[in-house]
Write a structure and sequence with these properties.
Elements: H1 13-32, E1 76-77, E2 80-81, E3 91-92, E4 97-98, E5 119-129, E6 137-148, E7 152-163, E8 170-181, E9 193-201, E10 207-217, E11 222-233, E12 240-253, E13 257-269, E14 278-292, E15 295-304, E16 312-321
Antiparallel strand pairs: 1-2, 3-4, 5-6, 5-16, 6-7, 7-8, 8-9, 9-10, 10-11, 11-12, 12-13, 13-14, 14-15, 15-16
Length: 322
C-alpha cells in the first residue's frame, strides 16, 4: 500500500495563514532592518566642507546694516583680499574701488563715483578775489551726494552768494549733478566717468556742464585726477567755457593727511565775441585732513597767473559721511 502525505490545510485556517505569510514577512523584516525611521534618525555631524563665502566689501555684506566706506573690508577674490600698501588703497565696495576715492580728494577735480549706498553731506566755502578791483565774491555751497547702483551717483546743491564784507548770503542757485562710471575700478585705464550738471540760477541764465572724469594711482601713495570740462550758459551772453583741471596728491599719513597740488586752465568766450577767448590759469597747493574716519577737510588756495585770471580762488570743503 502506498502512503502519500498531504497537509490538510483546510482543516486549520490559522496554520495555513501563517505558512502563506511566513515568506513575505521574513523578506520584509530583512528590508526593514536596513531602513531608519526619519523620526529616529540621528543628527548628522556638521558639514565641514568649505562653502563659497559671500563677497565682502559691499554695502550689503552685513544683513540689515549699511556699512560706511571707512568700515568696508577689502574685496576678496579667490580667497585673497585686494589690499594696497596702505589702507586707503584697499579695494572696497561693489565696484572694487580704492578707499581714497570714496571721499573728495581734490576740491576742483572729481574722480570716479562714490560706493553704492553711500550718503554724504559737504559744506563748501569759496571766496574769489577779482584782479581788477571790485568786491570779493564768496560762495557758500551745501551738497548732498548719494551712491546709486550700477556705478551711478546723484548730487544736489544749494548755493548762496555774498559780495563784499557787508550783508548776508543769499540763496541764488540750485544744482543737480549725475555721474556714471563706465566700468568697475581698474578695468579701463583712467577709470573714465561721465558727469552732467544743470544749474538753475535766480539772477542769471541757467548753465549746463558736462565733464569727463579721469583718475587713478601712479604708485602707492600718489593719486591723480583730471577733468575735461565743457560749460554752456543757456541764455544772456551764452558764455562758453572749455576747461581742464588736474590734481595730484601724496599720502603722508595713511587715512589722515595728504598734500599735493591742483590747477585749472580755462578758455572762455561769449556770443558777442565768439572765438576771442579769455584765458584763466590758476594753480596752488592742496591739502586733505581727516580728523575722523567719517570726516574730511579739503583746502586748496589757487592763485591766478594770467591777466584774465582772478587773483585767487580759495576752496574749503568739509564733508561728513552718514
Amino acid at each position: 500500500m502506498n502512503w502519500t502525505y498531504a497537509p490538510r490545510i483546510h482543516r486549520c485556517p490559522r496554520t495555513a495563514i501563517a505558512v502563506v505569510l511566513a515568506g513575505p514577512l521574513s523578506f520584509a523584516g530583512a528590508i526593514s532592518a536596513q531602513v531608519v525611521n526619519p523620526a529616529d534618525k540621528q543628527a548628522r555631524p556638521a558639514d565641514t566642507t568649505p562653502q563659497p563665502a559671500p563677497v565682502e566689501g559691499t554695502a550689503q555684506s552685513k544683513e540689515g546694516y549699511r556699512q560706511h566706506s571707512y568700515e568696508m573690508p577689502p574685496v576678496v577674490v579667490e580667497g585673497k583680499p585686494l589690499q594696497g600698501e596702505i589702507r586707503e588703497e584697499d579695494r572696497i565696495g561693489t565696484y572694487a574701488q580704492p578707499r581714497w576715492t570714496t571721499q573728495r580728494r581734490f576740491p576742483a577735480t572729481r574722480v570716479y563715483v562714490v560706493p553704492e549706498g553711500k550718503f554724504e553731506f559737504e559744506w563748501w566755502l569759496r571766496p574769489e578775489i577779482p584782479r581788477h578791483g571790485g568786491p570779493v565774491e564768496t560762495q557758500s555751497q551745501y551738497e548732498f551726494e548719494m551712491g546709486l547702483p550700477y556705478r551711478f551717483q546723484l548730487d544736489f546743491y544749494l548755493v548762496t552768494t555774498k559780495e563784499g564784507n557787508g550783508g548776508g548770503f543769499e540763496l541764488d542757485e540750485q544744482k543737480v549733478e549725475g555721474r556714471w562710471a563706465v566700468a568697475d575700478w581698474g578695468v579701463i585705464p583712467g577709470n573714465p566717468t561721465f558727469y552732467l550738471e544743470w544749474a538753475q540760477r535766480d539772477s542769471a541764465a541757467d548753465v549746463i556742464e558736462g565733464k569727463l572724469l579721469l583718475g587713478g594711482e601712479i604708485v602707492s601713495r600718489w593719486h591723480w585726477g583730471t577733468n575735461l570740462v565743457f560749460e554752456y550758459e543757456m541764455g544772456d551772453e551764452h558764455e562758453t567755457a572749455y576747461e581742464l583741471t588736474a590734481g595730484l596728491s601724496y599720502t603722508i599719513v595713511d587715512e589722515v593727511l595728504s598734500l599735493g597740488g591742483e590747477g585749472k586752465f580755462a578758455l572762455i568766450d561769449s556770443s558777442e565775441d565768439r572765438g576771442n577767448f579769455a584765458e584763466e590759469v590758476l594753480i596752488g597747493p592742496s591739502l586733505q585732513l581727516k580728523p575722523l574716519p567719517q570726516m574730511h577737510i579739503d583746502v586748496a588756495p589757487l592763485f591766478g597767473v594770467t591777466g584774465d585770471s582772478p587773483v585767487a580762488q580759495i576752496y574749503v570743503v568739509v564733508g561728513w559721511e552718514f
